[in-house]
Amino acid sequence: MKTYFGVIQNGRSFKEVKTRLTGLGIKISKYYPGLKIVKFETEKEVSEAKFDFFITIEEEKEDFFIQ
Amino acid sequence: MVKNRYIVLLDSQNEKSIRNVEKGFSVSVTSSEYLSKDNRSFNIIDNNNAVLYKNLGVVVVDDVDEEQLTRSIADSKSPVIYFEKEREFFPADEFTFIDDLKTNVDQLKNKILELENYIRRKPIPKPAVTDLEWGLKAIGMGETQFSGKGIDVCILDTGFDVSHPDFVDRIVEGKSFIEGEDWDKDPNGHGTHCAGIACGNVRNDTGKRYGIAKDSNLKIGKVLSNNGKGTTSSIIDAIDWAITKKFRIISLSLASPVKLNEKPSVLFETVGIRALDSNCLIIAAAGNDSKRPALPVPVSAPANSLSIMAVAAIDNQMRIARFSNAGINAATGGNVNVCAPGVDVLSSYPKKSGNSGNYVLLSGTSMATPHVSGLAALYMEQFPDLNTREIWELLESKAKPIENLKYRDIGKGLIQVIQ
Q: Of the candidates B231, B239, B267, which has its C-beta nearest A64's C-beta?
């Protein structure tokens, strides 16, 4: 299972995004209202064409370190 | 009763009025038309009489009661409408002026002596005893009275040692975004060091100042584990928390390396924009992956996002730190915006094995970043009407270029306080 972050397009509501993701069989892990970003997990391949309500989808990174 | 010579103005010079004056003031009035070489006015006046100057409607009279004259003005039956004491006039002689000047100079001399004695006796104010760490001197901290009062500064890092003696009296708010680890402890020490630079004050042993925004409101988000590692989730979680709490500054002394020509993350670019839209400024370390002078590498993520301020590090000789990343992915984003002190920076640190004191020297763009965050808090206090984008512009426009250092390495230059 991979974790992704989707940045909701301006003008789209979280409710709409939730409905679309549910329709794709994806459960939302967390919604960040201050940032209008959705975190979700899926084993399926993620293509931006299917997720046209996001500005971008990025996979979780685990390589942030103290500098 | 005071008697002098008076100039008395009459509203009428008819016989009745003159008799009124003669009777009221017990004088004999002689008209000026009868004055002659043998009948001088001063002789008449000196003999308790008065002279009437008909063309002027004025009587000059000696030795009368001033209170009686005052009452006469108020009396509607009296012809007296005004009076004043006779004045003395002197010739405008040059030597008189010189004498007057000499007198004035003597008086002034005395005043100056008096003032001089007062100043000499005044206690001498003690010189300021607070010495500053080199980084604070470099950004001009000695020239400002601002302290970040009332500004919420959020440090997203390894946590914070709330038991540190310099902070035991401070109210610190925090939250952990790392499962099973607390925000108010900092076994790593990195977060406590960064928080000290941005929001600390003076050392409790020497009194030397190492922190910038000493009166700001310190907020802590633990986004890096005790071994100094974090994920997109922990960082995004914490930034969302900070924006929801309306914190004004988020300081990120963390980074993820990027490759040459790698495009910045749209996710973090959007996060930076949405933070700015919420009046919150995100400031991040440019990264420590360079091996200068041979191998400078690109600014890391998330500092490489255009909406997040990227901070490079310099040393106390105004040289770029050998590890500090550079704006070499300029075509795709990833410039350095400003630089700040980041080599051998002293700040607060938890007491633990291997470190017996409360302070250590550390180097990194991690140390440069909280210098900018602290200064941003001072700007926000100093210019409360400016929004966050304007504060960003001000930080860049007031930064000082450093001779022989490139824009690629230090952006607009070394950040400076505004006097």
A: B231
